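ARCHIVE CARD
SHELF: 3
SLOT: left
DATA:
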Amino acid sequence: MSEILESYVAGRWAAGTGEGREVHDAVTGEVVTRVSSEGIDLGEAVAHARTKGGPALRAMTFPERAAALKAAAGAVQEGKDELYALSARAGCTARDSAVDVDGGIGTAMVYASLGRKGLPEGTVVVEDDFIQLGKEGVFGGRHVLSSPHGISLQINAFNFPVWGMLEKLAPALLAGVPTIVKPATPTAYVAVAAVRMMIDSGALPEGALQVVAGSIPGLLDELGGQDHIGFTGSADTAAMLRRDPAVTERSAHFNAEADSLNASVLGPDAVPGEPEFDLFVKALVTEMTVKAGQKCTAIRRAIVPESQLDAVADAVSERLSGVVVGAPGAEGVRMGALVGTDQRADVQKAARQIADAGTVVFGDLDSVDVVGADADKGAFMSPVLVRIDDADRREPHEVEAFGPVSALMGYRDADHAVELMARGEGSLAGSVVSADPDFVSAIVAGAAPWHGRILVLDRDSAPESTGHGTPMPQLVHGGPGRAGGGEEEGGLRAVYAHLQRTAVQGSPAVLDRLG
C-alpha cells in the first residue's frame, strides 16, 4: 500500500493516520499516494501560524518579505523538473505543466518585484496624501494599511496545484500574513512537493507557510476577524464556506474564485479568410485542450454569427482532428488525461446534458483513441464540440462540463451576443475576436458587468496576446456572480486585500510621520 502524503504543520513533517483516500495516476490508474489529515492537530497549525509565523513576518519590512518570496520561488524554479514529472502523473503534458509550474513561479517572481519596487521600506503603507478636514488646515486624515494579526487559509483547486497556490501565497506573504495551504486532494502530491522545496530552502521564517494534505475539519472554527480565507473551486463549495460562522459571525475576510461559463464572441467581420477567424478557431481549440479543458477560464461557450455556425464548426473540427490524446511525453501527444476517472465521469455527465440541447459535431462522449496508454485505465476523454442551434436553450448557459467540452451557438447582433454572454450569470473571463472597433466597443461595454476580465483579440494584438484563458498577475483575476464575486492578483491590489485599512486623524505633522 502506498504511503500517506505528509503535511507540514507546526515546524515538522508528519503523515496523517488511517487508511486515507487513494489518489490514482491519471494515465495508468496506479495508486500514487494516499491522503489523510487524520491525527494532524489543525488547532496547533493555526496557533503556530499566529505565534511564530505572524510575528516573524510582521517584523520584516516589505523589501525583506519580497526578498524571501523571491528566494522561495527560486527554490521551486530549481526543482521544477520534479514538479513536471509529478504533474505528468496527473495527466499533464509538458505544455500543461508549463502553464501551472512556470506560470506559478513567474507569478511569484512578479510579486517579489512588485513588493520590492512598489511598497515602502517599512511595514506600513500610507495610502494617500493629507486630507484636510478643517478650515485652518491643522487637522486632517490619511489612510494607512497594516498587517493584521491573523492567518491566511488558502483552499486550492486540483487543476493548478502550483500556480493556484503561489498566486495566493505571494501577496499574503508580502502582506505579512502567515499561510496554511489546503491543496485539493487529487493533485495534493504536486502542491506538497512545491511546499517542501520552499520549506527546505529556508527562505521563509518558521510558521510563515504550512500545508495540510487532506480535509480540514474544525479549522474554520479557529478563524475570525483578523483572518483571510481564499478559496478556488466549485460554486457550491464557495457557497458552503461563505455560510460558515467564521465568515457570517466572526467576519473573517472571504474571497472566492469559482468555475464559470466563460464565453468567446466572434465578430461579424471575422469571416473565413480573415485573420480574426483563424485566431478565434485556434483560441477555442487551445482552450478546449490545454489541461484537457480543466481550466476555470476555459471557453465553455463559443458565440458566433448565426451565418458562421457551419464554417466555425467545420474549422474547429478540422483542427481538433489533429489533436492527439494520450500519455504525456508520448510521441505526438498534445492533450493528456483528466485528473482522474471520477472527474471524467462528472464531465461526461455534464456534457451529455449539453449535448441533449444540440448536436455533437466533433468527438465522442464514450470513447477516445489514446497514444501511449490504456484508455480503459487512464482518465482520457475526447475533445467534444456541441452545436446548439437554439442559443436560448438553458443547458449551455447553466451546465458546465469541466473538461474538453465547448458549446457552439449563434447570435443575431451585438445586443444578442451580450445577452448570451450575460446568461452565464458571471464569468471569470470573456473574449471578443474582431477587428471591428464599433462591434468590440459594444461587446466590451455591454458584457463588462458580468465579467472579471475581457480579452480583445485581433491581428494587431495577437503577436503578444497571452490568450483568452491566461490570468496575469498584474491584472485582477476573478469575476462576479457565479464566478465567485471575488478578486485575486491585480498587482498590489492583492497585497492590499490582505491588509487592514485604518483612517488616522491628526495634525499634518503627526500624519506626515506615519509609515
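SLOT: right
DATA:
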Amino acid sequence: MENYQDFMTRENTGKKIRRQDDILDYKITPEKSDEEKIIKELGKLVSAGKRRAFLIVIVAISFTGFNAWRLSKRPPVYEGKFQILVEPVTLSENKLLRVVTQTLGDTTFGTNEGLDYESQIRVLQSPKIILPIIERIQEVYPQLTPAHITRELSTKRIMEGAEGTKIIEVSFRNRNPELVKFILETVAEGYLKYSLEERQTTIRQGMNYIKDQIPVQQADVDRLQGDLESLRQRYDLINPVVEGGYLSVQAQRIGPQLVEIQSLLAERESQYATLQNLFERGNYVSILSKEAATYTFLIRDISIIDTEISAALTKYREESDTIQDLRQQKQELNLRARREALTILEKVASEVQGIQDRKELVLQDQMRYEQRLRQYPTMARQYADLEQQLQVATDSLNSLLTKRNNLQVDAAQQEIPWQIIAPPGTPSTSTTPRKTYILLAIVGLVLGLIAAFFAEIINNVFHDADDIEEETRLPILGMIPIAKELKRGTQKRKTLAPLALAGTGQRKGLDLIGESQYRQSSYISSPLLEAFRSLYTNIRLLSIHKPIHSLVIGGAIPNVGKSTIAIHLAKTAATIGQRILIVDADLRSPKIHTKLDLPNLRGLSDAISTDISLNEVIQRLPNEDNLFVLTAGSLPSDPIKLLSSKKMHSLMEQFQDFFDLVIYDTPPLMGLADGSILAAQTDGFVMVVKIDKTERSVVVKALDGLKISGASVLGIVANGSER
C-alpha cells in the first residue's frame, strides 16, 4: 500500500476546507407566468390522479353500485302522460294568432316565427294557472299538497329534429295509478280552458291596442312631414342629393379658376412694376416698344432725331442753332413719348385692378360654397334622419291599418283552442331514467376524487423531483432511477463483476453493490450509470473556479439510500481518474464496509481517538488505483464528541489535501447532529430524498437544522425516481 506518512506531517498549505460563501449560490428560477403555473398545477392533479386511480375507482364503483341496488329495491312507480297541440298545424289556422302576437309583441304566445315554448311552459307551471287546477284535485284527494303535485308534474315540448314539434307533453308520476290518471285528466281540462280564455283575451287586447295606436302613429307622420318641410325652407333645399352634387361641381370649378386668376394677377403686377420702373427712369421708348405696332412712327422719329443729333455734334458745337433745334425737336418727341408711356402704364394698372376685383369675387364665391359644404353633412344627416323616421312612422301606420283590417275580417275565427291529441291513458310503471345512473356515476367519481385528495393530504410525501425542488427551493443534482439490479445485488450477492476503468481496457477487482452494471468497455451506458454521471457532473459544475473537494451525503431519515449513492458517486468519480476517499462517518450504524465487503476492524473512530497511522485505517479497494475507503471502525459511546473534536477537523483537512474528492456518509439528520457537524466543515451537504417515502415536513425540518449549523446545502438527490 502506498505510504501515507507524508500527508500525515505535511503542512496544510494546499487546499483549504471551503466555507459556504465559496459555493455558487443556487439561482432561484424566475417567477413563472400564470399560464405556466396553471399547466404545472394541472400536471400535479393528473399525477395525483394516476397515483390514486385505484382508490378513485373503488370509491366510485362502491357508491354507484350501492345506490343503484337501492333504486332497484324501491316499489314500482306509475307514470301517465297526455299530449296537447298548442299551435295550429296549417298556415290558415295560424293566421289570426300570428297577427295578434305581432301586434302585441307578447312573448307568452310567441314571436313572428311562432310560439315561444319556453315561456309558454313557464306560464303553464305558474301559480296563476296551476293553483285552480290543484284546488279541483284536492276536492277529491284532500291529502295532496301543491308541492307534491307540482314536484311530480312535468311539462315539456316534444323535440323531433332541430326545430321541434308544436306538441307539449304533460306527465305525472306516483305509486297510485288511479291518482295519476285523475290528475292528468284534471290538468288537461284546465289547460284547454286556459287556452280558450287566453286567446279571446289576446284578440280583444289586440283590437284595443290597434285602436289606440293608429291616432298616435298618424300624429307622428304629420309631425315628421312638417319637420321635413321646415328643413327644406331653412336651407333653401329641394333635394339633398342634387344639392350635394351641385356644391361639389362648383367647388371643383372655383379651384382651377382661382389658380388661373392668381397666376394672371402675378404676371400683370410684375409687368406693371417693370413699366413703372422704366417710366421713373425716363425710358419711355422701352415702354412704347411693349406696344410697338401702335407707336411705330413715334419710336422711329425718336430714333431718327437721336441719329441726327449724333451726326450734328460731329460738325457743330452744342451752342449752335442746329444743335439747339434738334434738341428742341427731341424734347417735344420725349414729351409726347412720356404721355403715351403714362397712358400704357395707366392701362396696365387698370388691368391689375380688374384682375384683383375678379379675384375677390371668386374668393367670395369660394367662401360661400365652402360654408354651404360645411353645413351640408349636418343638413343631409338631419334630412336623412327625418326621412327615415317618416318612413318608419308611415310603415307602422300602414301596418296597424292592415292588422286592423285583418282582425275585423277574421274576428269570427277567434276561438282557436288547443287540442288533446293523446288523452291520458292507463299509467304504466316507470323505470329509473338512465340519467339517474349517470348522475350516480358522476357523484361516485367526485367522491373518489375527494377521497384521493384527502389521501394525498394524509400521505404528505414527495412524489417526484419537481415536488422536491418546489418545496425546498434547492437544485435537483441528480435523479437516481429505480434499479432492480441494486436490490438483487444487495440481497443475494456480495462479489460482483469487477469494475472496468474507462479507457484502461483492464478488469480491476472492485466489489461494489450493483457492480454488474459495469462491463469491460470504453464506455458503458445504462439509466443507472448515466444518472450517477449526471450527478457527479452537476456537483462539479456547482463551483467552476473552486472545485468541490469534500461533501457530506446524508438524509433526513434512515433507509433513503444515502450509503449506496455515496458509493456509486465515488466510483463514478474514480472512473474518470479522480482520487476519491469515502469516509464512513456514521458511527452509529455504519454500512459502507458491509456494502463494499471490507473489514471494519479499525476505522475513523480509531483514527480520531488514537494515534494510529492513517496507513493502517485507510483501505484501497482491490485492484483499484483511485478509490479509497475509511470505514467507521469501532462504535464509540459518544460519536458527537469525536466528530466535533479538533483531531477530526485536522483529519478532514489532511484528507482534503491528499484526495481530489472526499465523500462522508453520515447518520440521518433528524434527531442527530452528526451530519450537521461534518457538513459545516466541508464544502457542502447533499441531501438524499427517497421518492414516495420521505415526508415533506421531515425534509424541511432537516434543512432548517442545516441552515442553523451554517452548513452549505449543495442540492438534492431524488432517489427512486421513475424518470
